[in-house]
Design a protein that fits this description.
heterodimer, A: 695 residues, two-stranded antiparallel sheet, 65% helix, 1% strand, B: mainly alpha, Four Helix Bundle (Hemerythrin (Met), subunit A), 0% strand
Chain lengths: 695, 200
Amino acid sequence: MNSPVWPLLLGRFEWRDLPFVRAIANPSASELVGAFAGGLVVIGAIVVALLLTRYGKWRYLWTEWLTSLDHKKIGIMYIALAFVMLSRALVEAVLIRGQQAVAINNPGFLTPDHFGELFSTHGSIMIFFMAMPFLTGLINFVMPLQIGARDMAFPWANSVALWLTAGGAGLMMASLVVGQFSTGGWTGYPPFTEIAFSPDVGPDYWIWAVSLGSIGSTMAGINIACTLYKQRAPGMAFMAMPLFCWTSLCTSILMIFAMPPLTVATALLALDRYLGFHMFTNDLGGNMMNYANLFWLFGHPEVYILILPAFGVYSEVVSTFSTKELYGYTSLVLATMVIAVLSFTVWVHHFFTMGQSANLNAVFGIATMTIGVPTGVKIYDWIWTMFRGEVRFTVPMLYALAFMMTFVLGGFTGILLAMPPLDYLVHNTLFLVAHFHNMLIPGLLYGMLAGYHYWFPKAFGFRLDEKWGRIAFTCWVVGFYLAFMPLYVLGASGMARRTHEIFDPAFRPWLYVAMAGAGVLFFALGSLFVQLLVSIRNRDALRVFAGDPWDGRTLEWSIASPPPEYNFAVVPNVDGRDIFYRRKHAEHQAAPYAEPYAYEDIVMPRNSASGVAIGVFAAVSAFGLIWHMWWLAIAGAVVVIAALVTRSFGRDQHRILLAADVAREDRRWRAVLAEARAISRHTEMTTANQGLAER
Amino acid sequence: MSKTATEIEQPDAEQDDTALFGFWIFLMSDAVIFALLFATYGTMTQATAGGPTAAAEFKLLPAFIETLLLLTSSATFGRASVAMKYDEPRRVLFFWLFVTLGLGLVFLGFEAKDFADMVADGAYPSRSGFLSAFFALVPLHGLHVVAGCFWLIVMIVQVRVIGLDRRVKLNLLRLGLFWHFLDVVWIAIFSVVYLGGHIA
């Protein structure tokens, strides 16, 4: 059982690489947890396949979704992926908290290696396969609608980027079923992840999953930037773009410049592991500090890749639900740009303790604190936007408020950590873990959830259930405070992060509180799924086909919900900010729903299977590399190249939507619009809301 | 108003513009990769671990010949672009594309010989951090040239099979940008790695 099964075909696979075999051989709690997780993946896949077959939905799924180049569907698929991965990584968080709560002066229920895998997958998934797909999906769905475009600049590359990311996520799931994951944390620091200390497949899973995600994100970044530079509707100046578009632009620029360092770091680590290079090894001139620098040259801008889109969501949400123009638009744009630039000047603060001079640390410490200034500007701008506004406490607005208070708290602890002398004291403790969760949960997750609630009616044509939305919101907030405030105390008391067993009983009460918090967070996620089911069941009552449920301000609310494939029957002309709101509420402006004089034929891209093929076979090739199944690695790469070349020869890649059909679809929506009863803002959370705002 | 089926397959001038702009951004991202590998190489020039050094291993003459080959191939690609732009007879375009491809392949041959000589001399990547950094940087450029040659072959076939429609032209323009970009990177490699290795 401890030797390769059939090396030529299966590489270094052994029977004991299957968690089920391990669990039978050694039925400990740790192995049973692993086998259960692996079983869940396998059974889940089988159940989904059976359901698709039972209801005959394979063709629908393939033609309407998987092969679609429609930016809206690609955006929705990204977010679906994010929710699946969020569920897994949150369960892992509960297991981590559970282990630490019981492992006080005893080894707990997880082995040290299993615990190491859990915090590595939790971090890697949350960053690369929850946060990145979520924000990329949201930008994909919303941004073209906001700038009056019919699609992204490169619809096909958009599909490839999605499927590369999905391929990486698939490798993460595969690591549950075959072999094990890295125990080197989400940062994968060598020399620990070098072949000398981690000869197993774990770090290889990490390297290739992250690399696929990284390449996908680089492509997404190029696409988003090009779309914003080149596809804006006539008349839309840069300073007329909604703020979400500005933060998307800055995020995409960061992706273009910050993902390459990650690709370089993982590729060099792969050279070390596969070809015996000495880039980061202990011996023969390797230098792991290069890895630390490369990784954080990506890692710090990444923080702002994650946070800026959420800032954009909050700007839209706060303005809409305060019924006021965004306060300090120009300062928000400038602050976003400044944050994007400064984010490249602070990476050393992730390793103050690694031996560079005090002066260098001081420079990076000061640069770090400087980022607090533009961020503070933003917080004040949002507060001033609410000031004397008619604030409506919808679910997205609640998230925005929770964000403002919680994020400022996290910012303060960030300023503390930016001081090198203090950082030396709490480096690598739970204080740091508390800090970055304190930034990313409000600064990313709440923002994405606010965006999910805000734009869900636009995507699917019905609102999400309010009651369950509020329950989920309450749990996310209460759960966060319970789970992470104790970690500040524990970290300041000296408890190291990633500790498998705890020897100080004084930590016990705090660990219990944190465990309870994790439970509440788990319930919060469950509430989100309940909310989705309840909303789907009540979709007829929640319907907002007319398209404007929140008295919206920007272009995406001026069209039907869900929007037609081509978004705008006629591309709008834009002459300033909040164009839709101004047209609704000013007499001398053109009417918001003016019927076009004439309809034209519209050219849209046809579906393409090559994006799916490239993503899937890139993952297959990576799987071959991980397991040293060289034939599989080569075969996968050949398919990827063949798909690329085939695509470049193809010529029948667009189709025409006839003007008459466009007109018919548009008039059907206009008929509903004419029938819909306009509602006041106070009744927007009731079933009276049909998506038409009072003028 | 209606467009014919062949018309919709062809991007208009505005889309061409967007496509080229996107490719420029991609090259910028690729340039960041090379910049980081140069920086990494710069930190590891002394990490020879008692093994072969730069001065002992880097042969200037072949590197100089490789430089000339690559620069000439950029000029010939430029000539091919001119032939495409002014609709010169198809054989002129083919001629210059094949010359470019030939120069690219000869460059790769010389480079492969360089690497083989180094390995035979005991200067292989797993010998030291310095050689690892060298073999991470320079062969990556070589791999780019391999990809460029493969792309060139695909484009020659496309010109032959499809003709010069707008998309083929667009992809030739992109390939041209890529090819010239590889020149720029090579000049940096020649200056920093080869000449730098001898100065130090």
